Amino acid sequence: MGSSYKLDKDAFARRLKRLYDMWKEPDEKCEGGFKNMDSFAVLVGNTEDVVYCKSSALQIWLFGYELADCVMLFAENEVHFLASKKKIEFLSQIAAVKNEEGMPTFKFHPRDKSDEDKANFKTLINIMKGSKQGKTVGMFVKDKDMFNDSFIKGFKNSMKSEDFAILDVSTTLSYIMGPKDESELNTTRKACQVSCDLYNKYLKDQIMDIIDSEKKVRHSKLSESTEAAMSDKKYISGYDVNYLDMCYPPIIQSGGNYALKFSAESDKNTLHFGAIICSLGAKYRHYCSNITRTLLVNPSDEMKDLYEIVIDLQEEVLKHLVHGAKLSEVYEAGVKFIKEKKPQMLDKFTKNFGFAMGLEFRDSALIIGPKSTGYAKKNMIFNVNMGIQDISNPKGADKTDKTHAIFVGDTVVVNESGPATVYTNIKKKIKHIGIFIKEDDEDEEEESDKEDKTAEVQKELLGRGKRTTVLDNKLRLESSSEEKRKQHQKELAAALNENARQRLAEQGSGQQVEKVRKSTVSYKNASQMPQENEVKELKIYVDRKYETVLLPIFGLSVPFHISTIKNISQSVEGDYTYLRINFFHPGATVGRNEGGVYSQPDATFVKEMSYRSTNVKEQGEISAPSSNLSTAFRLIKEVQKKFKNREAEEREKEDLVKQDTLVISTNKGNPKLKDLYIRPNIVSKRITGVLEAHTNGFRYTSVRGDKVDILYNNIKHALFQPCDNEMIILLHFHLKHAIMFGKKKHIDVQFYTEVGEITTDLGKHQHMHDRDDLAGEQAERELRHKLKSAFKSFCDKVDALTKQEVDFDTPYRDLGFPGAPFRSTVLLQPTSGCLVNLTEWPPFVITLEDVELVHFERVQFHLKNFDMVFVFKDYRRRVVMVNAIPMNMLDHVKEWLNSCDIRYTEGIQSLNWTKIMKTIVDDSENFFESGGWSFLDPESGTEGEDESAEDEEDEVYKPSGEESVEESDSDSDYSEYSEDSDSGEEELGSSEESGKDWSDLEAEAAAADKEDDEDGFSTKKSHKPSGNSNSKHGSSKNHSSSSSKHKSPDKKKHSSSSRDHSPKKSHRDKHSPKKSSHDKSRDKKSGSSSLKRSNSSSHNSKDSKRSRK
């Protein structure tokens, strides 16, 4: 070890001074007899077989490196080093440390192998005798027998020949080295981040993959692969691998064999899909970390409850682990919590709740246990872990599933006040660690077997008539999922109206109070009126102070406040200038933001006033008389603009909820993101700034000093959208109450930064193998990865800081679908609680908890798109519509809504939602008594209606000819339009079947027309069939027949359903054209085709009823 290794002299001096200060003025609580020590010897031999020891830890703490075969002797005023020449050369760097008050001097003794260092040993023994009283020597007793090489043994033998009292100073050094400085805390954070990355990015994914594919993997194999993953940049990046190591081999336990301690080893049993305990700890620059998690596969309710108790127990322990707390009392607080929650399980909990850690993985002097005498100090690092073992599972299928365990652990730092801060804050709630496997295969197989048996029975009963069995088998899976969805929607529909009625009853009437326009008084008394010459001369005068215009009326100056003036105009006609002033008054149209309610609406109001003045300047006049009108026009405009701006600001502030004051955290390690843009912009030009998390909220500070504060308790949704397939990466906050900045209030605030180039230079020469382009793409990929890691780290730190009060949600891009909530089509992406689009501005955020139901409009399969309407539980809130969703996404959207337990309906028409919601709000009781939201459901018709529709279908076609004629004359249920069009189609079909030539058909058609003209000509002038309204001759069947030939079925259906009225059975128009005998005979011959068309017509009639309903 030579001069190439650098020693941090400042850290060395600072830490050595702390050691000597404790020696000279010890802390009574934790000195452990340190003041009775005369000297202090640290012996470190060959360290190859030693993993953790206090002696090596002290060397690393002071120098940053471990020095093998070295003796350090701390005397009263001197520190002596006995080591090889290379180590002495390295240690000589400390000679430059300033000899401040309280600091010892340094002496170096190179080893002399010629006499096996006997002379050096004798020198050190004499120094020990000369330090203070020379009787008591402090040592690490546990380390004394750890090094057995000849060099250390020789020094021990030299000490034995003297009568020294040995004092164990391990506990005292634990208190000296325990509180970490800022550099140590940063190193520990990095070690914790490595542990989290290794667990999150590798181990957890590996276990999920094993469970998903049902592989058989041994615990030991999984442990080895996890340790090997530490050197893979895919999982661990941004750290020097030379300083990375594992604190212990990763421990994977499952299948009933559990040991809730860190000395356990991963056995060779295969991974069991029950309770899986994973423990791992990374070490960075010798500083240790640890994380322990339990993954539960299909946990029972009892396991879920026990797991929640363990998580709550950890929170309780962290709450009591503060500066100055006695560790045994912290343990007792945890035991008290267990006795309150689950006293019968107390014996099965771990016997301690953690220990201090740092350069050593486990500091035995500082254990959170019942017999511990230690105290917690600020900035100490603890591994807080607790668990339950031997949890019986009576429902276990085999021996490995009969016993479960739960173990949870995290690395934390002690604070001055308040709960300890978690450094390994990976989410550990049941929804994050629970793995729920849906065992649908068995159910589907059972259903498949039942349906196969049913199909066989039908085949035997029906013989050759049942030929669709194969097709049914193919579509069974689709139909079963569709049926499940429909059944779930029926359940939601049943609960929807009842819940809505109950909610409205609890809310009460809740009528909005109308705002009355405040009567503005310009002057409280005459003395306040201006006394300028313009007023005395009866000129138009604008008083800016009181925002009033004084107008001369019948020889008096009458004041009008600026709020009473609607608008003002000036015009020049010939030699005169006209000034016209229009006032607000009852009955006049007003703008959206202008008050239309008056305190005294029955009073007499001035509507408008006009003034005229000449443009001709007389001799001796400075300016023409009309200049006063021009000046008044300009001043009124200025005062009006100022008044409107002030009123607009007041309107913005009307609904604002007063927010708490942001508590600024002085901690340097606050989560922070730099170079972020904010949307909406604070000023017209976008500027960058810094987003920092504080005690109770975020603060964004722009480069020019603007500040925007967002409190944690005002955040409704915190969303993090990565830069995958996007050109920006962003954090979005959807707030409960709007905040004010940039003179406007905002409910959505977003912070983002761009990834790569938003625009492309089309004039640039591009080649697919251009080195610059390839380098640019690589740089962009690296930037994306760097930004994603930074944002993710920020979110995790905020999650830890706020105790998951702010939980960042990420949109699921795979579940997204296109739609147009505003002007342009965007990708709408669901999250766990919202439907959002955050990339485009303005953003689109719908909270699913607030949605009552969703209605699909224009659902017709010959259309390419449909619309989606969100109706909210607050019926006074305006519905939100998303347009132009592709029709092929309909089932996808339905499936998503169904999974969110949201009721949906569909229809072919667009509805007037403003009118519908007003009707519901005005008379909600009557709305729900008449069926409530069932009017949107096309399948909500009563059984009676369905039966009558079936009867109508049956009546259309009957085998006997006379009955058919009589029924068609008297009881037809179809409109004249559908009747005429159907008859036209029947003519074509029957003509082709009868085999008549064209001359015969023309003669028959002419005879039929003549008969119709004679029967109904006089009435058709006044009553024309609605279906033939576009025809010149409404009575001609040839016209209706020809028009119906070229209509597609969809068009015919649409026109039928969109009509406002259709004649009913009992109200058929007596003047409608009757069928000729020739038509009746053709009805007999074309039975099968008539049946098909009548069924189609009946179907159209049903749709018509639904749309009218």
Automatic annotation (TrEMBL):
Residues 7-173 form the FACT complex subunit SPT16 N-terminal lobe domain. The keyword Lyase does not apply. Residues 540-700 form the FACT complex subunit SPT16 middle domain. Residues 1025-1043, 1087-1099 have a biased composition (Low complexity). Keywords: Chromosome, Coiled coil, DNA damage, DNA repair, DNA replication, Nucleus, Transcription, Transcription regulation. Residues 931-1109 are annotated as: Disordered. GO terms for molecular function: nucleosome binding. Component of the FACT complex. Belongs to the peptidase M24 family. SPT16 subfamily. This is FACT complex subunit. It comes from Cloeon dipterum.
